[in-house]
């Protein structure tokens, strides 16, 4: 069984940040896994050991600032992909790593695009999990509806019911065991009750944005910088409301060497333990330094 160690480092503005460090003996570049908006490193507790077992690579599954084991910021304005990318570069620097293969789910993929702009050489390979330079309007509206909203649950059974209610359309084949596991990944115990394991202030910038008054920035140049010139893979949930088939198609046209894997019957976002996702990730790492 693959075990992990707790790793801590400091951000440029003095926050203590956390990652799960899964040791691997291979000399190849390590893998850095970055979670989605309201998620944390526990989302990779199946994927990370599988990568170590199959490739021997070291895996670092990070908690982005404001989530789980990483300190919350006193300034909510720092909850943005540019600052998050700086935190990832600080991790590489303190660990003496010139580069890594990055896997980013949703927001994690946006952080990778920022990394490609800030320090292209830091990315040995790139896996985008159900995210692109555009976000489908339906999915964006859904995110704005739940992020930062507290969950009033009394126990772990209530936490499992909460994640099931919000994600049954994403994982229609999940049973009660899977929902219980997701609850443990999503909540932490505080005062004897499960509470969502992220800073509600991460929602402020999202809720304040007015797409009619201020159009979303053009991320296509950032995506092209990320997906071209290195081994790259796009994973899409077959029923995703964030990464539409149209957006995915245009991404593949803009990065013709990027591989594409679709996870059927899963929405936003695949957990990456699905056979279609895992085999595609291992194939990418096999052709990466």
Explain the overall architecture.
The chain starts with a strand and ends with a helix. It has a single domain (5-148, 217-286), classed as Alpha/Beta hydrolase fold, catalytic domain (Rossmann fold, 3-Layer(aba) Sandwich), CATH 3.40.50. It has helices at residues 47-55, 81-95, 107-118, 137-146, 156-167, 176-186, 204-208, 220-227, 245-254, 275-286, and strands spanning 5-10, 16-22, 31-34, 59-63, 100-105, 123-129, 187-190, 193-196, 232-237, 259-263. Helices cover 36% and strands 19% of the residues. It is built from ten helices and ten strands. By secondary structure, the chain is α/β, with parallel strands linked by helices. Helix 1 (47-55) packs across helix 10, helix 3 (107-118) crosses helix 8 (220-227) and helix 5 (156-167) crosses helix 6.
Name the shape in a single word. globular
Strand order of the largest sheet: 1-2-4-3-5-6-9-10
CATH class: Alpha Beta
Overall mean pLDDT: 95
Radius of gyration over C-alpha positions, nearest whole angstrom: 18 Å
Percentage beta strand: 15-25%
| End-to-end distance | 25 Å
Number of domains: 1
Would you identify the CATH H-level superfamily? Alpha/Beta hydrolase fold, catalytic domain
Unreliable residue runs: none
The CATH topology is: Rossmann fold
The CATH architecture is: 3-Layer(aba) Sandwich
Q: Structural class of the secondary structure composition?
A: alpha/beta
SSE order, as H and E?
EEEHEHEHEHHHEEHHEHEH
Total number of strands: 10
Total count of helical runs of at least 4 residues = 10
Helix content: 25-40%
Strand count, sense and closure of the main sheet? 8 strands, mixed
């Amino acid at each position: 069984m693959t075990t992990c160690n707790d790793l801590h480092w400091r951000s440029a503005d003095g926050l203590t940040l956390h990652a799960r460090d899964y040791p691997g003996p291979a000399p190849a570049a390590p893998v850095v896994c970055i979670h989605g908006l309201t998620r944390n490193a526990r989302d990779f507790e199946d994927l990370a050991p599988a990568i170590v077992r199959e490739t021997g690579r070291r895996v670092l599954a990070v908690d982005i600032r404001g989530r789980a084991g990483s300190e919350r910021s006193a300034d909510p304005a720092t909850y943005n992909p540019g600052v998050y990318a700086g935190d990832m570069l600080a991790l590489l620097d303190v660990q003496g790593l010139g580069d890594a293969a990055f896997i980013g789910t949703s927001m994690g993929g946006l952080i990778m695009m920022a990394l490609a702009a800030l320090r292209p050489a830091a990315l040995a390979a790139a896996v985008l999990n159900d995210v692109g330079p555009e976000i489908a309007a339906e999915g964006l509206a859904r995110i704005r509806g739940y992020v930062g909203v507290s969950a009033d649950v009394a126990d772990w059974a209530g936490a499992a019911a909460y994640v099931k209610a919000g994600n049954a359309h994403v994982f229609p084949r999940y049973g009660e065991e899977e929902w219980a596991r997701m609850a443990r990944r999503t909540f932490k115990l505080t005062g004897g009750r499960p509470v969502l394991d992220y800073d509600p202030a991460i929602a402020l910038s999202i809720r304040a944005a007015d797409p009619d008054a201020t159009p979303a920035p053009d991320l296509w140049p950032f995506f092209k910088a990320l997906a071209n010139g290195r081994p790259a893979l796009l994973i899409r949930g077959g029923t995703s409301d964030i990464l539409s088939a149209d957006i995915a198609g245009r991404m593949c046209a803009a990065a013709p060497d990027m591989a594409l894997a679709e996870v059927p019957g899963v929405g936003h976002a695949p957990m990456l333990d699905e056979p279609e996702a895992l085999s595609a990730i291992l194939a990418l790492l096999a052709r990466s330094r």
